[in-house]
UniProtKB/TrEMBL annotation:
<dbReference type="InterPro" id="IPR001173">
    <property type="entry name" value="Glyco_trans_2-like"/>
</dbReference>
<dbReference type="Pfam" id="PF00535">
    <property type="entry name" value="Glycos_transf_2"/>
</dbReference>
<protein>
    <recommendedName>
        <fullName>Glycosyltransferase 2-like domain-containing protein</fullName>
    </recommendedName>
</protein>
<dbReference type="InterPro" id="IPR050834">
    <property type="entry name" value="Glycosyltransf_2"/>
</dbReference>
<feature type="domain" description="Glycosyltransferase 2-like">
    <location>
        <begin position="4"/>
        <end position="166"/>
    </location>
</feature>
<dbReference type="InterPro" id="IPR029044">
    <property type="entry name" value="Nucleotide-diphossugar_trans"/>
</dbReference>
């Protein structure tokens, strides 16, 4: 049995060494660590060359042209030869038992296409922000259950995931996936094709969250909306139809997500033309009466009141979740 770790990278010279060493120093060392350098313009290439002598299982791919996130991830995953492939972003890092624990679960449950765990959220200085804890009891989730859960969104604490290569091959890796929400798209596709997943409640990795000073994420809202629509229309709805299931839960979820996403229509960074385009993308996700009301509310400056209500609701959910989890721990 061979274990591969795929680390796509671009201009992460500050962090890539820590990511690689966190893999190499696992209690169960992988057979290969593949880093796909997507034409970085910082010192990434220099650091990778220096690491080759310290990390004999390290294999570096220097892409001749910049592929972009999706294609670089795909190239990195496809270059792996292992039966199991861990995908790790180059600014994140693992706890020492990640591979040992998740691999054992994947071996125990051969119907699982991937494994994941809870994570610790950190900032750019490695300071802990919070723990991302999934509210989930089951170690193994069957494919049909995973597909039904996907209706509510991507059910992974962070995109640090170990895949079964056979499962990735069945869904053709990242080919044809949207530029935003591609991880959600992949997980839903795996479930649609009959693959379950395994989960450890232990915190086994560290996921870096950046301060978005340039509002980059907000400016990518159109890609986010299109990505969400693609997940439902390309994967989830067809899978429900093939199984003869009712699609009412999908329609309700699309309505809820579209209504929440419509808050972008009140952001000051967009021009009127951009707001019109975004409103159209929200309606592609759901054209229900509720969605249209939310669009009107947000476009007319009343979204702050909805935001306050959501904050109270989310705070209550977090409080209840923390109480339940604390009882389980004790």
């Amino acid at each position: 049995m061979k274990i591969s770790v795929s680390i796509p990278t671009y201009n992460q010279g500050q962090y890539v060494e820590k990511a690689i060493l966190s893999v190499y120093n696992q209690t169960l060392t992988p057979d290969e660590i593949i880093v796909s350098n997507d034409c970085s313009t910082d010192n990434t290439m220099v650091i990778l060359e220096q690491l080759k002598s310290k990390v004999p299982v390290l294999k570096v791919i220097n892409q001749p042209v910049n592929l972009g996130i999706n294609k670089n991830v795909e190239a990195c995953l496809k270059a792996a030869s292992g039966e199991f492939i861990l995908r790790l972003d180059s600014d994140d890092f693992l706890e020492r038992d990640y591979i040992k624990i998740i691999l054992a679960l994947l071996e125990e449950y051969p119907e699982a296409g991937y494994g994941h765990a809870n994570v610790r959220e950190i900032d750019q200085y490695d300071h802990q922000l919070k723990n991302r804890i999934l509210f989930r009891n089951l170690t193994f989730q069957k494919a049909d259950d995973a597909l039904k859960a996907a209706v509510k969104g991507y059910r992974v604490a962070a995109n640090i995931v170990m895949f079964r290569k056979k499962a990735l091959e069945q869904v053709n890796f990242m080919l044809g996936r949207p530029n935003f929400g591609e991880d959600f798209h992949l997980a839903a596709h795996l479930a649609a094709e009959g693959w379950g997943n395994v989960f450890s409640s232990k915190i086994l990795s560290n996921y870096r969250v950046w301060v978005d000073a340039g509002m980059v994420r907000q400016k990518r809202k159109m890609s986010e909306l299109q990505g969400l629509t693609s997940v439902f229309e390309d994967v989830i709805t067809p899978a429900f139809v093939r199984r003869g299931w009712s699609t009412k839960s999908i329609e309700k979820s699309r309505e809820d997500i579209a209504s929440a996403q419509s808050d972008c229509l009140g952001w000051s960074l967009y021009s009127e033309a951009e707001i019109n385009e975004l409103a159209g993308a929200v309606l592609q996700l759901s054209s229900s009466a509720k969605t249209k009301r939310y669009i009107w509310i947000n476009r007319n400056g009343y979204g702050k009141y909805l935001k306050s209500l959501r904050s109270i609701k989310n705070g209550l959910k977090t409080f209840i979740k923390d109480k339940v989890l604390s009882r389980k721990v004790s």
